[in-house]
Design goal:
This protein is mainly alpha-helical. The chain folds into 2 domains: about 140 residues, no CATH class; about 100 residues, no CATH class. About 55% of the residues lie in helices and about 10% in strands. The chain contains 11 helices and 5 strands, in the order ααβαβαβααββααααα. Strands 1-2-3 form a 3-stranded parallel sheet. The protein is elongated.
Length: about 260
Amino acid sequence: MDDYLAVYYISDLEKGVLDEEEAIRLLTSFWQLMIVKEQVTDDRVIIGGLGRKHPKEADELALIIMEVSRRVRDIVPQLTLRMFDSMDNRLYEKAMECIGEGTTYPMLYKDENIIPGVMKVFGISCEDALGWMPLGCGEFTIDHKIIASPNSVLNLANVLWGTINGGFDSTGTYRITPNDTTLTDYETFEDLWNTFCENVAFLTDISARNHSRGYEIIGEDMSLNLHNLLYDGCLDAGKGVISGGTVSAAAAMRYMV
């Protein structure tokens, strides 16, 4: 948000159209509109980060955005600050001020830690990875390039229980892992660990395939035309955003499958 509104904000300041307090008032109204929607995990505002088009101007607006969340004091929107090594220190200091007062936000992420992982997991270039964003409950996606949200839950404690209990839950009723071995069957810890890792890989693969199939079903059921207009590549490819239309769709689908 700080980047795509930055030029307009600075221009309005210079022309006297508004001052900082008026900007805070307008953004506060926007925050309140998000609050009444009651979509806690899906109302996010992202500021900061490498790869912005107008970093200096965006930094000025990012300070205002953090002040809005400091005053509103709500769990929506989930304000997120993407930090990086050469970031203007004022942003970090403002974030600490907000968090120190109990505002909770902004959540802090470090680009240098996350971007290499995003490149590897999604199989995309550094340039594309600069557009990473958290969404939902904390999954990652790529702004206007990937809509798929790798999203699953695996209870590792249950996997361990199945690993030492013949593949069944504590009641012996439901199979939760594919192994038949129990704790007494493992001669070494390494044997136990290897079976546990095999179970994790097995269940993760099933989860990924189910998640991928879910997107296939959605793509068959609806075209999501508004989304198609907002994501790179869909119009050129003549395909929907979930049907392989985005420029990074191939990379995303490799991840999903």
